[in-house]
């Protein structure tokens, strides 16, 4: 069956235009958040940067928190791929595999810094963003606990406690990085943190 004239990939021209506008708003929001932060950015700032209007913005999003969620969609896949790799590295119990994973994680923070910082700032204001970040934290804990269980380190409760302690260390470092960046040697952080993790895992 032939597609109707003016459609693209089965979408009508109106749908294509709507998706294009939505993407433009999301990209503009990312640029605004990078320049001035989440709290200081207004809906008007985003609409102006996207070359559209406040009314059009609200035709696509309920507010800034929804835009942050849309930005977050761009990093969800890589986040959960990292969790899968974390589980495997923990299960191996090998210093080199854990170090390589931590280095990849730090690289991800740097690539996704604009989205990550906007989410962290939004989480302090919007409960729905805080809930989403909280679920991702728990998934990180679960990745370590599952890896430890595969390695036969402890019983289920013990794996969970070790996972919580180890991932909390990483999360505290992450929150500090969001605020001040790398003001210590990154390679040294990797080595010291892996030593701390291995002590917890044993």
Mean residue pLDDT = 91
Total domains, how many? 2
What sort of overall outline do the alpha carbons produce when their principal axes are compared?
elongated
**Helix fraction?**
over 70%
Rg from Cα: 21 Å
Characterize the largest beta sheet: strand count, sense, and whether it forms a barrel: none
Q: What structural class is derived from the secondary structure elements?
A: mainly alpha
Order of helices and strands: HHHHHHHHH
- Stretches where pLDDT is under 50 for at least 5 consecutive residues are 1-8
DSSP summary, beta strand count: 0
Please work out how many helical segments DSSP would assign.
9
- The amount of beta strand, in percent, is under 5%
Q: How far is it from the N-terminal to the C-terminal residue, by CA?
A: 62 Å
Task: Describe the structure concisely for a colleague.
This protein has nine helices and no strands.
Can you give a write-up of this model?
The chain has 202 residues and is mostly helical. It folds into two domains: 49 residues, Arc Repressor Mutant, subunit A (Orthogonal Bundle), CATH 1.10.10; 129 residues. Helix content is 80%, strand content 0%. It is built from nine helices and no strands. The longest helix is centred in the middle third of the chain and has 29 residues. 24% of the residues are buried.
